[in-house]
Fold each of these.
Amino acid sequence: MTIQMINQTTAWENIFRKDFPILDREVKPGIPLIYLDSAATSQKPAVVIDTMDRYYRLTNANIHRGVHTLAEEATAMYESSREKVAKFIHAPRTREVIFTRNTTESINLVAYTWGRKFLNAGDLVILTEMEHHSNLVPWQMLAAEKGIRLEFIRVDDQGELDQESYHRLLEQHPKLVSFTQVSNVLGTINPVKVMTDQAHEVGAVVLVDGAQSAPHMKVDMQDLGIDFFAFSAHKMLGPTAIGVLWGREDLLEAMPPFLGGGDMIKRVYLRSFSPNELPYKFEAGTSAIAEAAGFGAAIDYLNSVGMDTIAAHEHDLVAYAMEQLAMVRGLRILGPEADKRGGVTAFTLEGVHPHDVAQVLDADGIAVRAGHHCAMPLHDRYNLPATTRASYYLYNTRSEIDQMVVSLEKVNKLFN
Amino acid sequence: MDDLYREVIIEHYKNPDHRGHLDPYDISFEDENPLCGDHIRIDLRVNGEGLVTEAAFDGHGCAISQASADLLLDSIIGKPVEEIKKLTKNDVLELLGIELGPVRLKCALLSLKILKAGVYGLGEASDELVEGD
Ligand SMILES: Cc1ncc(COP(=O)(O)O)c(C=O)c1O
């Protein structure tokens, strides 16, 4: 499937939709679902659902212990999902891929282990004003505990990171720079590679929140040159409750374990333990095994479509959406031009609260998100209590955007 | 949806009767819905007999939260403070005349939560205040 073909099919037909059973449902009798909330969580293709179903019907066993056939099969499946993840993000080593519950837990893991061990009072951590709460609160907690300093790269009026403010902060010799690759509100794609090089020049470690990038574009750990990367399966066609922390081997080796318990140990005595090797050192307790199976199937599916194809399709949708939304009276889109953003459009509609916008759209079967999208400081930055957000994925079409616009006109009629 | 945005709700949202602040006031309390950032402040004046003589609200939020605040204040002016303590979820829903799912219910009940926390002199508005029928 070439990029050109995708663009031609978006207007009237989308060859991926049939793979997603939920897209057949009606929200209310006679009103089909228009799902524009993939930035919150994506829908799942049948292969993912079937893989998890099959796992429970045929394979279910605990992993890494027991030698019976089911345990062997379950372990092999779990570890093959880890390999798929490693390949998907082009990690140098599979043992650098740690399964967590989600992006949030991945970032907390770094704050809790690396942060606690290597950051001291007065040390500077650089974040940005556009971060999701999951890349703010763990560092705030660490600041309260250890007295580290937090500074924030400013977001300019176009919704891009103010690189000048970043450079000024770099002069203060930060120990860590942690930021999102794609904003879940503005859609902004941040220049990870350049920013990472600059951070490394002053000796800082770089953590990138990949929650909104890994699902939508090629992400290559070796090319980006970063140190940590966090993302969630549920936003990339996979199940909930499984996510990934990728980290550079030497950093992970130097970090103390996260949670203590089974699986993460090599040897336990009554009063002490020695930790297991990577990646198990960070995977205490029974893992999300069925979810790992589903995650593996999701990655296979994404690979079969191709991340470049997905990125091109979303770019087409977001460019079209921005053009169409701009024609709705009183509507203002946050963030940069289409060429600089992922498949996210957050907007305000003059005189109407986002909840009311979302509610009227829901009546037409259109699922969008209203609120602060777990980025309250970013909304403060724009002096907005909330926004409405439509986000797009490979299964969305231009005609769905048309229907959203029709529905937004209804909102205007009702309220303005 | 047409039910949800009944004319009375849109009307009270666009042209509230009780928007503003009271100065001085006898009771004032404000809080927000952490899910959506809706914010409401309610001021009351109470006379020697414990009757609410004046009431005002301010803040921002969706049509449901703002209209319910306006309707709620409308309904308590002239009433004894003790009666406000007995108000529940159902009283607000009756005022609005609509049915709501769990998420929007929080919007509708924000003003009652704040009102009751203020009347009870509590430091914090909790969901428990609006439970019961
Ligand atoms: C940019 C960003 N970071 C982090 C998260 C948190 O993801 P999760 O809830 O899966 O941990 C999200 C998802 O809402 C996000 O959009």
Note: Chain B has one domain: 7-124.
Amino acid sequence: MYEGVVQDLIDELGRFPGVGPKSAQRIAFHLLNSDPADINRLREVLGKVAEGVTFCEVCGTVAEQQRCRICRDERRDATLVCVVEEPKDVLAVERTGEFKGRYHVLGGALDPLSGIGPDQLRMRELLARIGTDEITEVILATDPNTEGEATATYLVRMLRDFPGLTVTRLASGLPMGGDLEFADELTLGRALSGRRAL
Amino acid sequence: MSLYRDTGIVVRVQKLGEADRIITLITRKFGKVRAVAKGVRRTGSRFGARLEPFGHVDVQFYTGRTLDVITQVQTVDAFGSPIVADYQRYTVASAILETADRLCAEEGEPVLRLYLLVIGALRALAGGERDAALVLDAFLLRAMAFAGWEPAIVECARCASPGPHPAFNVAAGGAVCARCRPAGSVNPGAEVLILLDALMVGDWARAEHSSYPVRRQASGLIAAHLQWHLERGLRSLPLVERRLREQAGVPEAEQHAEPHAELDGPATQR
Ligand SMILES: [Zn+2]
């Protein structure tokens, strides 16, 4: 145990996902040896986070304005919507450079064991978008694991009776059982281009 | 380093650190086991999708300081793909896992009967030949019997006088005779008690003969009985999809037969 604020810092850092006590100590001492200007920049960013992060009113991803950069971009194909679980999955698909449509972030996957059903996710918002926008294809890009597959099953059933709407699922290039964020760009890109109708 | 091996059902997975998971299994010999699967969330992990919920697996562990560590996994039954291909089955199977996890309080305490009940229920769901809601209710009744909370169905819960009796009282422990009947008892009707009895003894011909309103009433009594005995309610039980199946022309198994064939795809063999 260190004295006072240094131990407080280590304790706080140790609460982050994936950071064990050793890593927390390493980061803490890195910060102690940092330029005060760097620490101030970090403090400003954290201050802004504490004031509240906004989510895009259309797709639900993290955004600086009411609408995110992608939903504002007129060059993106508004007929194509890629449904993902989390904002980090938007970034993962964007990194492939394969996708020119827009997104819909559900905010998670259907997981009864954690008490998450359709009402806890942005399902109704997706239905509303399909009812009003010019969407002709929905790509289901939920994680290739149990909860993600079950969510895709649910969405297929929910969307299959919409006239003129095609529902597709990422192809099987992705190894099962993992998280989408760990997929390499090549695998994820191939999965996108090889999608098929359900 | 001590190694041991057992078959088990994956009942819960929790993220640990960057890419690991804590896997909770109900095993044949050692009861509930919580163990770490290292790197399982990375694409291309040697475990692949084998340690996902509903998996019936043959696992090798080594005894760690705090948690045991999974070193090898082989699939015995891949119940997952047919279960996630149908949303109602998925919600039912989730409720089965959560119930099993909750009834199995102590790690390392053998629960062979519960293990066999879970496998039987998941196998029936994956096969898709039985009504998913009936599978759940049969499982819950027998799981409660395993826990020592078996509701009285034919005899009176209080005085054990032979039935059938018209009244049911969750707090009293099930069916009650006219003399013992506490205030607040319900009168579920003879057919509901006949269904409960059929589900308890595994008489599927009689259970499947029941009407849907009777099944819904029976489900309500079973859920109330279970919640009465559990300290906190189950998260998954309210999310179980209860559909008016008699109105749908096509059986659920046929409606959703094809979409998720990719779960069996070549990617899992990496
Ligand atoms: Zn947006």
Note: Residues A 56, 58-59, 61, 67-68, 70-71 surround zinc ion (CB under 6 Å).
